[in-house]
Design a protein that fits this description.
single chain, 201 residues, alpha+beta, seven-stranded antiparallel beta sheet
Length: 201
Amino acid sequence: MPTQYSLQIVHPAFELLKRSARVLHFIAASIILINALHLLQVHNGNKLLCYTQMVIAVDIFLLVFLGGVLLIEAPKLNLIFRMIEVLTLFGISLTLMSDGHNWLGIVHLLVSAGYLFLFYREWRVIRSEAVDIRQTGITVPNFVKDAEISWHEIKTIIPKYHSIIIETLLNKKIEFNLRKNLKIDELEQIDDFCKKHLCNG
């Protein structure tokens, strides 16, 4: 019998983040394009920087309007563009602050930090969108930080063919739908594993 099980789940917060990808890319591209147009109007604006930002903004707009399905089907592509947005927004903030526009620079820096956090979360979604059942307890993915629940904190755990329900001693109920239905033998093994550790815990 395996010593741990990993069940791929549908996490509502993660699904919302995936569905919001196009809007978030559109916002980032708009900010970059507005800054590029502003640079173009400034008499001493760096033209190379301006055109570079325009190219990046246009690339992101193309992704948003022509490759919307790719953002869900190829999440790594989404990550690449998110990192490009983070670096571009960070560069804009440094440029603004070096030109003496400190408040605008700080705003862009905060936006860049926000997009960096989104990058981290999207990267985590790709890596760990699963409930892990181990000998030490259960790991539940969360939007900010994964929750570790030890066996002595769990009242019941009910694995089903299409979902898993965990109830803690503090009467907190956690339920996730599974991405793939379990087979009968898998369900029996997981159920036996959980019952054994609940009795021992």
